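Incident log, support desk, overnight shift.

02:14 A customer reports that sequence design results differ from what the structure should imply. Their input is reproduced verbatim below. On-call engineer (initials T.W.) acknowledged and began investigating.
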């Protein structure tokens, strides 16, 4: 892509963001006009905000406080929206949201955004990423505007480290892997918020916001599957898309989204339990909800299908002087207690055998496109496609 094309796309992106900001200001005014109780409206607006995840706050001893207000819910959401907006904006433009013109000042401790880089995205992936970037910046502006309109004080953007996980910007697959994490976490937060919404007007807008976030997540997960991007589970509420998992849609046994509390979200963001900083937020987050949970989220009903996972790390693998590469194959299955992994077909050469969970390094013989088949051999089952639990294709670059 030449420089003129990049400038053109950025201009369209910024124009789209401005139009969406005006639309959201109109939405806020409509909500104010429709609500007889401004404080009740604030509560429902806060709950509808992206990634608020407030439904289980009072059930989390580490975060339950009698003094929390609806403004605190909005500010918790704003911390996370800053993170997503920075990620997508830097990945698509190499600029921070402040450089794009988004306000990042407010209450609390402000900090710089470090890490991240322009990602070599192409085609539809670039256009989709730029559209999501505009959406996330609009979410930041929407929450700030809602709070100011209702007499609140939005928090400042805290320090953000986009390199917290050590990946996300080197390649398009890197970007998709990190985007999947952000999007799936965001959708689970909405599941906890929905039961608290009582105003029908707000609920209608919240449903549309949730639908938008779900569109983001579903699109990213489909790109993960189509580009054969390896992913790893974050916690018990995380259901992986192909090729590492089986679920295009991360739903539980009732075909509902999983839920996470604010503390469980911060556990993933900080990277440690009972913490007040770390990971993506090296100086912590601003606002009342600022401590990670003691334990990670789990699925309330279980996966909608059995999750039999096989993955390769690294994938793509870097070629050696011979032209081949090395990687490590990891597997986990809830279907079988006895497995074998075969090369290039269900009955191909045996790579390794073992129990339901394990890992095994390869030698320096992995060629580009080599496929590893996870086979259920419990009870003497045949090495056929009917007994294949999963497969992973390794790319060599």
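02:41 Re-run completed on a clean worker. Output:
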């Amino acid at each position: 892509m030449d420089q003129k094309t990049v400038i053109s796309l950025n201009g369209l992106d910024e124009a789209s963001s401005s139009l969406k900001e005006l639309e959201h200001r109109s939405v806020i005014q409509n909500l104010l006009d429709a609500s007889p109780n401004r404080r009740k409206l604030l509560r429902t607006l806060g709950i509808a905000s992206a990634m608020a995840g407030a439904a289980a706050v009072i059930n989390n001893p580490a975060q339950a406080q009698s003094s929390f207000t609806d403004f605190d819910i909005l500010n918790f959401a704003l911390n996370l929206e800053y993170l997503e907006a920075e990620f997508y904006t830097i990945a698509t433009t190499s600029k921070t949201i402040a450089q794009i013109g988004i306000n990042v000042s407010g209450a609390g401790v402000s900090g710089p955004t470090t890490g991240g880089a322009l990602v070599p995205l192409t085609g539809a992936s670039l256009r989709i990423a730029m559209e999501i970037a505009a959406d996330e910046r609009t979410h930041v502006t929407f929450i700030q505007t809602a709070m100011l309109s209702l007499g609140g004080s939005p928090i400042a953007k805290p320090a953000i480290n986009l390199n917290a996980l050590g990946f996300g910007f080197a390649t398009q697959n890197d970007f998709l892997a990190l985007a999947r994490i952000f999007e799936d976490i965001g959708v689970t937060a909405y599941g906890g918020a929905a039961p608290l919404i009582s105003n029908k007007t707000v609920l209608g807008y919240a449903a549309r916001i949730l639908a938008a976030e779900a569109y983001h997540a579903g699109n990213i997960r489909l790109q993960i599957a189509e580009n054969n991007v390896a992913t790893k589970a974050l916690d018990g509420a995380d259901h992986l898309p192909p090729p590492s998992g089986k679920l295009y849609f991360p739903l539980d046994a009732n075909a509902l989204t999983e839920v996470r509390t604010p503390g469980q979200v911060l556990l993933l963001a900080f990277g440690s339990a009972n913490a007040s900083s770390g990971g993506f937020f090296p100086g912590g987050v601003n606002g009342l909800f600022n401590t990670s949970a003691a334990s990670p989220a789990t699925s309330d009903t279980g996966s909608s299908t059995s999750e039999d996972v096989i993955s390769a790390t690294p994938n793509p693998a870097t070629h050696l002087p011979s032209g081949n590469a090395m990687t490590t194959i990891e597997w986990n299955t809830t279907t079988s207690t006895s497995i074998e992994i075969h090369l290039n077909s269900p009955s191909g050469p045996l790579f390794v055998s073992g129990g339901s969970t394990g890992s095994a390094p390869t030698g320096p013989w992995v060629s580009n496109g080599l496929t590893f088949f996870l086979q259920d051999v419990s009870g003497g089952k045949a090495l056929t496609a009917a007994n294949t639990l999963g497969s992973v294709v390794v790319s060599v670059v």
